[in-house]
Amino acid sequence: MKKILIALSSALLLTGTLAFAESVHNPQAVEHTKQAIIHGEAGHAALLVEHAKAGLTHAQASQQAEPSVHTEQAISHLNAAIEAGEKGHADTGTTHAKEALKHLEAAGKPPSHVAQAEEHAKAAITQGEAGNASALLEHAQVALTHAQAAEKESPSVHVQEAINHLNAAIESGKNNNAKDGTIHAKKALEHLEMTANSKQ
């Protein structure tokens, strides 16, 4: 039991450290990218490059801490902004910096309740497939909390169905029935994914 608690504590500490690194670097990347845009719009290619490089450094650190498709795209556009700026093309560099900024801002947004419910539903499935009904129960309860919050923000048939299946998964977990709990968690995940897809 002690080993499990130590492993869990270490995992939480590492996750917290990575999240902190992401939360520190993303805003810095955003700020430097904004400065690159300001200087690029003023025709100052050299200053655009300076700020784009600083933004790139922070974006790369953010990507290392918490990989994101948006941060990856921002890195690509910052590299293009630097390349254009080094050739004296402030206008093209500014265009790429603006694209990078869009992606950095999207990457900096906290995950939606639907996304968090999905993650916990997946964890519930993993635990249920391992026969661990109590861990399935815990993750299903957290997923339910996020699904209910998502339902309050934007009512949806799929979120309501996910809530119904999460409640069933919780009941199965309380009855030490990992098999049925897993089935309901999978159904909940299907509905959560349909909700996420419909919002894209």
TrEMBL record:
The keyword Signal applies. One of its GO terms (molecular function) is metal ion binding. Transmembrane segments: none annotated. The keyword Signal applies. Pfam families: SMBP. It comes from the Bacteria. Residues 1-21 form the signal peptide. Keywords: Signal. InterPro entries: SmbP. This is Metal-binding protein SmbP. The lineage of its organism: Bacteria, Pseudomonadati, Pseudomonadota, Gammaproteobacteria, Methylococcales.
